[in-house]
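Problem: given the chain below (190 residues), write out its structure.
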Amino acid sequence: MQQTQNIILSLALVNPKMEIVVKTETEADYEQITRVHTAAFNGDSEARLVEKLRKTPMYIPELSLVAEYREEIVGHILFYPMIIKTKAKKCITLSLAPISVITHFQNRKVGSRLIEEGLRRARKLGYGSVIVVGHSKYYPRFGFEKASKYGISASFNVPDNAFFAMELKKDALKDCKWKVEYPKEFSEFV
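Solution.
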């Protein structure tokens, strides 16, 4: 695997335009996806989370995407349904988590391509909103705003400038002012 990563890195350095293909993950991709998350986060927590989420009835295969460079997976993103419980109703939103790109492909728009394609697919599937916990300078470029703007908070302690929401449909979060309920699979992260 190390030799393959060295070859990919060499090719990426020679070809700065990189032909990245974003597609739906397949079962044959699982092992490479695990390696991507483990390498990107210096540990296997995110990889284990992805494995757990795949086994749930809420998992949406069309929203688990890989970025490939010359048929090798260099990035992965998963969008997963979450519930925002209000006093009156339950709103369904998607959580963008996790996203990983191997080190040598970071800062080359691979993550951006994964996010943009995931958001496009989420709209096409009829989802109205997405939430994410992440870097305050990264996610706003895609249209994310502080979740507090919509009256939404997390069920765990997260700084206001690191918890974001985005409406994919106008007013999708209008009546969803309350806390996001993360499923038990996320328990080791929250």
